[in-house]
Amino acid sequence: MATLKLITFDLDNTLWPVDEVIRRAERRCGDWIAERHPDAAAIMTLDKVREIRDLLLQEKPGYVHNLTALRREALARGFLAAGYCTNEAGRLAGQAFEVFHEARNEVVFFPGALDVLETLADSYILGALTNGNADLKRIGIGDLFAFQHSSESIGKRKPAPDMFLAALASARVRADQAVHVGDHPLEDVDAARQHGFQAVWANLLDQKWPIDLPDHPHRIHNLRELSDLVALLDG
């Protein structure tokens, strides 16, 4: 077996739980709008902005690959609906998104996450592959990773091969020298295997494995288990 050289990680729900992070970021964004633009806040409720996002995805399905652009456009349309002109709506949407994004990057790591990343970074190239818009530099762990690829930067979401191929190119390794760690059975685990990587299912939220996917032998329920499993995979 080839010597393992590259470990790629999904981010949301793999290194930290994300649902409450997004809810808090949306609340903080809404509070910012209410404080500075109460006329718009009456129209731009959380439910209304989510409704606009859903409509945008129907209009332009490509937005699914760029969640930042989707949220900014939804905010801009909300300000437009509140009576602001196009330029002002775009400017305020940019400011509101920055409030959201700052809070979106205030994460609480799963137990053991930082320790295992620091340990593995001593021996392997680490990369991040995410369909979301978390920013490792803002979060404060960018120095542990050689690269971060996202659906925004690559233009395609996992399970498409594009992000995995970009990781191999960035690390200058072959697929059989890489392992991907992620929480999503299809987008992370099955996709990584389809594209030649080894894979580890980080089942930290006690999901059930889908019955329509081939069973997967490498799984962890706590990130502290990862170092020993990586050593096993490295043969």
Query: Could you name the ranges where pLDDT drops below 50 across 5 or more consecutive residues?
Result: none
Spatial order of the strands forming the largest sheet = 3-2-1-4-5-6
DSSP strand content: 5-15%
CATH class of the largest domain: Alpha Beta
- Mean pLDDT over the residues: 95
Distance between the termini: 7 Å
Largest sheet: 6 strands, parallel
State the fourth-level CATH superfamily of the largest domain. Answer: HAD superfamily/HAD-like
Q: Overall 3D geometry?
A: elongated
Number of domains: 2
Which properties best describe this structure?
single chain; 235 residues; alpha/beta; Rossmann fold; Four Helix Bundle (Hemerythrin (Met), subunit A); 2 domains; 6-stranded parallel sheet; 11 helices; 6 strands; 49% helix
What does the model show?
With 235 residues, the chain is an alpha/beta fold. The protein folds into two domains: 6-16 and 110-233, 3-Layer(aba) Sandwich (Rossmann fold); 19-104, Four Helix Bundle (Hemerythrin (Met), subunit A) (Up-down Bundle). 49% of the residues lie in helices and 11% in strands. It has helices at residues 19-36, 38-41, 46-59, 67-81, 86-104, 113-121, 136-139, 151-154, 162-171, 185-194, 226-233; strands spanning 6-9, 125-130, 147-150, 178-182, 198-202, 219-220. A six-stranded parallel beta sheet has the order 3-2-1-4-5-6, sandwiched between helices. Helix 7 links the parallel strand 2 (125-130) and strand 3. The longest helix is centred in the middle third of the chain and has 19 residues, at 86-104. The termini are close together. The mean pLDDT is 95.
